[in-house]
Amino acid sequence: MEIKGILEESLMDILIQKVVDEVIRRIKNQPKKAVVLFTGATIGFSQAMESLLKLQKDGWQLKVVLSDDGMRVLDPEAIKKELNLDVVYYSCNITSQKELYESADMMIVGSMSVNTAAKLAVGITDTVLLSLINHGFMAGIPVVAAKDACNPDDPKRAKLGMGKSPEKYRQMLHGNINVLCEFGMQLVNAEDLYETCSGKVPIKREVPEAAAKPVAKTEKTVMKSETSDTKGECVLNKKVITRTDILKVQDAKVVKIPADAIITEYAVETINSFGLQIIRT
């Protein structure tokens, strides 16, 4: 009887160990889940999208949330199509923030704007996107963010004519980034999002300013407008001219638009930044 009892106990131990091993195996093989947040910032956007596609290829399940500015500046339908999503979330279609983040392994900020970084650094959470990041902090969810758009020294910013900030202002913006790092957020270049999120060592890259691609070209996969170019002139045949449209034709000197076209406020600011001449035809 003693031998039988010992055998039964040994078999039970083996069965328990096999069950434990199987549970651990299944947990390890579960797909990673992430909430991806986009602000209205466009610098680094295309590189962030490339990283997200790589994560999806590795089996990651993504839920994408756009800020109100993101809904105006980016193309939610193109993002949904490129990432093969059923829905892109924003303030008007989110019924429960908790349902978005409660099962998330990570939060990924695909484009951290200057405004978003500044608000987070002082604890302001007055938008859905900021509130979600706040919940991520509070719930202990790792937050990784692309810093390109909030970094005053990013070379693409200089190409947009915004690389002449006073030193004190630059220090303030860098201070916001440092505070977010102290909160535990990982801020990396957009092209390093994939390596950082997947636990790999980001590739060290030294990209000279002259090699940086113009925003108008890098974002053409998700931002489309009807344009034509002729010797420094560009025609935007649209009823509503947005910031996205202007970013695509930033290299032109003269932009011709329909006489009754509406130019959004963001587009006007961008036109002034690039010093473009607008002619209504």
Task: Explain what the structure shows.
Residues 32-129 form the Flavoprotein domain. This is Flavoprotein domain-containing protein. Pfam families: Flavoprotein (PF02441). InterPro entries: Flavin_trans-like, Flavoprotein. It is a single chain. The chain is of the alpha/beta class and 281 residues long. The protein folds into 2 domains: 32-211, Rossmann fold, CATH 3.40.50; 225-280, no CATH class. It contains 13 helices and 11 strands. It has helices at residues 2-29, 45-57, 68-73, 76-82, 97-101, 114-121, 128-139, 155-159, 167-182, 193-197, 215-218, 243-248, 265-274; strands at residues 33-38, 61-66, 106-111, 143-146, 186-188, 227-230, 233-236, 240-241, 254-257, 262-263, 277-280. The strands form 3 sheets. The chain has a 5-stranded parallel β-sheet, with helices on both faces. Helix 6 crosses helix 9. The model is unreliable at 203-230 (pLDDT under 50).
Mean pLDDT: 82
Strands of the largest sheet, in order across it?
Answer: 2-1-3-4-5
Determine the strand fraction and express it as a percent band.
Answer: 15-25%
Low-confidence stretches: 203-230
Provide the CATH topology of the largest domain: Rossmann fold
Q: What is the H-and-E element order?
A: HEHEHHHEHHEHHEHHEEEHEEHE
The N- to C-terminal Cα distance equals 101 Å
Helix content, binned percent: 40-55%
Can you identify the CATH superfamily of the largest domain?
Answer: Flavin prenyltransferase-like
The CATH class name of the largest domain reads Alpha Beta
What count of structural domains?
2
Computed structural class: alpha/beta
Question: What would you report as the Rg, rounded to the nearest angstrom?
Answer: 24 Å
